[in-house]
Specification:
The chain is mainly α and 245 residues long. It has a domain at 146-244: Alpha Horseshoe (Serine Threonine Protein Phosphatase 5, Tetratricopeptide repeat), CATH 1.25.40.180. It has 8 helices and 4 strands. The protein has a two-stranded antiparallel ribbon. A two-stranded antiparallel ribbon has the order 3-4.
Length: 245
């Protein structure tokens, strides 16, 4: 009955009453004016709360029974959504332990201490090949082209000028697929030595001698010096004393 009271402001008699406590009659009962005012305020607050809750019901925010606003993404503990990730039995049975001792399900390692047997090849498999067990797999190294050759071997030869170990250079060159660029090894070494010191030229002579017969052949060395003589005019631009050296 108190919720149906009007929200209209106080009448003129109530405003002129000052601090004097006036009494009104509701259903034959006399109630102080202060109690009626509090009842109106409470009724107005409840109607505003209902209006806001119905307006925000589709926006993700909701109002709980206690009047507290729940933010978006917050799941009420008693909501069914909170049970989606719950792995406990919905029937209330069981002790909550993993199925099959942790060995069941997809993408699991199996029980601790489990040893797997060697998988046998199915001969009836349409993809079975008799020669697949005798295959030998080797790492394929693509041959170096001219640009990659110079970019790869230049730091190797420059490091050789520092440590002077021809065996290390030989091992590094064996790991590379030089292909038809073998004859270019002496060409690059001599070209770099012409721009360096006299000690570098002496080390280059020793390097070519040690690589001949292991990494490069005598034919490759002959071909490399033929190319050096043809490119001598270009070498003079960087090293004027190249013909004498």
């Amino acid at each position: 009955e108190l919720e149906n009271l009007s929200d209209a402001p106080l009448s003129g008699d109530e405003e002129n009453g000052g601090s004097e406590e006036r009494k009104n009659e509701i259903n034959g009962n006399w109630i102080p004016a202060t109690s009626i005012t509090e009842a109106k305020i409470n009724a107005k607050a409840k109607r505003r709360l209902r209006k806001n809750s119905s307006r925000d019901s589709g926006r993700g925010d909701s109002v709980s029974e206690n009047g507290e606003t729940l933010k978006i993404g917050v799941v009420v503990p008693t909501s069914p959504k909170g049970k989606l990730l719950d792995r406990r039995s919905r029937s209330g049975k069981g002790r909550g332990l993993p199925k099959k001792g942790g060995a069941g399900g997809k993408g699991v390692w199996g029980t601790p201490g489990q040893v797997y047997d060697v998988e046998e090849v199915d001969i009836k498999d349409p993809n079975y090949d008799d020669d697949q067990e005798n295959c030998i797999y080797e790492t394929v190294v693509l041959p170096l082209d001219e640009r990659a050759f110079e970019k790869t071997l230049t730091p190797i030869i420059q490091e050789y000028f520092e440590h002077g170990d021809t065996n290390e250079v030989s091992e590094m060159l064996k790991d590379l697929n030089l292909g038809e660029m073998k004859y270019s090894v002496p060409v690059l070494a001599v070209s770099l030595a012409l721009e360096g010191k006299a000690s570098h030229r002496e080390m280059t002579s020793k390097l070519i001698s040690d690589l001949c017969g292991t990494v490069v052949s005598k034919t490759d060395v002959e071909k490399s010096f033929d190319r050096l003589l043809k490119e001598l005019p270009e070498l003079v631009l960087d090293s004027p004393k190249a013909p004498q050296v």
